[in-house]
Specification:
The chain is an alpha+beta fold. 21% of the residues lie in helices and 26% in strands. The strands form three sheets. The chain has a seven-stranded mixed sheet with strand order 3-4-5-6-7-8-9, with no helix packed on it. Strands 10-11-12-13 form a four-stranded antiparallel sheet, with no helix packed on it. Strands 1-2 form a two-stranded antiparallel ribbon. It is globular, with a radius of gyration of 18 Å. The N terminus is likely disordered.
Length: 171
């Protein structure tokens, strides 16, 4: 059925530059973004990957579940299911933004739901007025098992988080 729908849309939309957008956007939608009704994937013992978020241009957010507080890396698609998953895993103690496209328009809802500070490189912090941000400058230990790395390139304030547990994981 979906194949027929796509084929019919293809015939109607030939030459239209927004054609590919419409092929995707006619699937199950919520607002402007694609609704994903899947649980995040457990990729390592205590790390979960959320499905790509259209609001962050297809970026993938991650949750690190730790005894000393959970870390959400970049913004996942914000749905009731996402919020419930995060609550079930113990909430969010810190939200780390690795680059400007990791910021969703719903970032304020994440911060409000979990009362978590937003950790962001200082050159990107201006993008979040009226939110509680904890900017960092260069590279340094942040938590005993985490190091923040300033890695300019994609944007002036791009950053990585190095998680020392599990043999070391770089986000």
């Amino acid at each position: 059925m979906l194949d027929n729908q796509i084929e019919n849309q293809s015939k109607e939309s030939e030459g239209n530059p927004n054609h590919a957008k419409r092929l995707v956007s006619n699937r199950t939608m919520r607002g402007k973004g694609l609704t994903v009704n899947k649980e995040p994937l457990q990729v390592l013992e205590s790390i979960f990957a959320f499905f790509p978020n259209r609001e962050t241009l297809g970026g993938t957010a991650y949750l690190i579940v730790r005894n000393d507080g959970n870390i959400l890396i970049d913004c996942p698609l914000w749905t009731e299911q996402t919020q419930q998953f995060l609550v079930e895993k113990g909430g969010v103690d810190w939200l780390v933004i690795t680059h400007r496209q990791g910021i969703s328009p719903q970032i304020h809802l994440i911060q409000t739901a979990f009362s978590c500070p937003i950790i962001i490189q200082e050159q990107e912090a201006y993008l979040l007025p009226n939110l509680e941000v904890s900017p960092f400058q260069q590279t340094g230990d942040w938590l005993p098992d985490c190091q923040l790395l300033w890695t300019p390139g994609f944007s002036p304030g791009s950053a990585c988080l190095y998680y020392r547990a599990l043999g070391g994981v770089l986000f």
